[in-house]
Amino acid sequence: MNKVNKWIIALSVVLPTLLEVIDTSVVNVSLNHIRGSLSAGVDEATWTITAYLVSNAIIIPLTGWLSSIFGRKRYLIFSVSLFTFSSFMCGSATSLSMLVFFRIIQGIGGGALQPLSQAILFEAFPPAEYGMAMAMFGVGIMFGPIVGPVLGGWVTDNWSWPWVFYINIPIGIISIFMIALLIHDPHYIKKVRQKIDYWGLGLIVVGIACLQIVLDKGQREDWFSSAFITRLAVISAVSLVLFVFIELRTRDPVLNLREFKNIPYASANIIQFCVFFVLFGSIILLPIFLQQLMGYDAYLAGLALAPGGIATLIMMPIVGKLTTKINPKFILFSGLLIVGYSMVMMIRFNLSIDFQMAALPRIVMGFGLSMIFVPLMSMAFATIPKEEMGNATSIFSLLRNIAGSFGIAVMTTILAQRAQFHQFRFAEHLNPYDPRYQMALHNATALVQAKTGIANELAANGVIYQSLLREANLFSFVDAYYISAVIIFGILPLVFLLKRPKHTAAPVLH
Fold first, then answer.
1. Residue 168 sits in the same domain as residue 273
2. Global pTM?
3. Over 72-119, what HEC string results?
4. Which of 7, 157, 168, 178 sits in a 20 to 30 Å window from 15, CA-based?
5. How does pLDDT run across 408-428, given as a tens digit for each residue?
6. Which residue range forms the structural domain that includes residue 49?
7. How many Å apart are CA 356 and CA 340, to the nearest integer?
8. For 223-233, how does the pLDDT look when each residue is reduced to its tens digit (9 = 90+)?
9. How many CB atoms lie within 10 A of CB 193?
């Protein structure tokens, strides 16, 4: 395969993947506009996000299996077509139920794009160039969650919320034509007849759907104090345990979990899960911190994330080249150290930081993430046979998405619980005999008097309590970043279990 074809193939599969990743977060900032336009409540409107995430998560692990039944190229064209059509229908929705329905369809179409694109890139590039292939793939996966909120906010403010979906259509159509002309199934991925694993199919659909709803709605419903969340959590746990039990004993499983016997592949999955857990958690935490404690508006808070995305975008091709010249383990280890250091920088946040100090850790993280994603992708599949690539990329993509959902759910829960903890601890010192309280009361009373002309002690206590709440919230963010740093530094030893790809020629994609 000549070099031109390789890069055009890469472009044809990365474009729709970028759109799919952006669509997991682009709607978030448009939610209020959608809610107002369709006369929906807040909880009802959030189903437009949950519906997409659930259907997306269900399809991802089934991608390799569906490709073996229908053929990879045919299934990819169908997925992009369904994603493009449902994007048009989402933008044309006249009711919330219509929008939620087509968001489910959009998730079904988009779910296959990540694992299929990754598998095709491994086909199009020889092992010696896996770094560059994964650099292109990484632009979509890593840059999408960051640019999504900014793009969604700009499009909604300057046009209207339907254009958040309409912008997918021209790129989707171009991708369909490029895939039809350029992509061909390898000989071992031709359509085959096999017995359908109905039990495995049913269990994973139910298990993943319930899990995704629990993670997305749990914090809002106060977790297990809600009977709805508790029931879904039990159903998910039972379904997924039974799924693992059945799949390990089935001849033609929907998802071949035996891949985890491969130590380098299993280690790469753990590293990826932890990194994306921290990445998505931090993406959620920083805008909340800037809006709640620093008084930023939504656009400016989203803009603080952008430099990190730009740093990732710049570094991806450079790291892709370096992986062919330097041991990828060294690059990956360095990337984890850099991301861990960015968490340490965030631990040092205070209530006096400026925009530059808020954006700097994200820039450092952006550099580190590019040094993680590219070598990790290259080494994760270095010991996977080509025939198993579709199944392996499906598992990898599933865990990446679930990690993001876990990261958001866990970090927002930590934020809420630790804020209450610190609030109670600080409130213990609010007594008239504490010298620090007496000094704070004196200063607050002077402040109130300067503003109103009246030395009102009750108003002064209100000022003190507002300050206490801000400090308690600050400490809760610090706790969340501290846990993130521990997670990143804790997975460093797993790097040594990975294997670098062999520099041998890959089969031609025909």
1. no
2. 0.77
3. HHHHHHHHHHHHHHHHHHHHCCCCHHHHHHHHHHHHHHHHCHHHHHHH
4. 157
5. 888 888 888 888 888 777 766
6. 1-194
7. 19
8. 888 888 899 99
9. 6
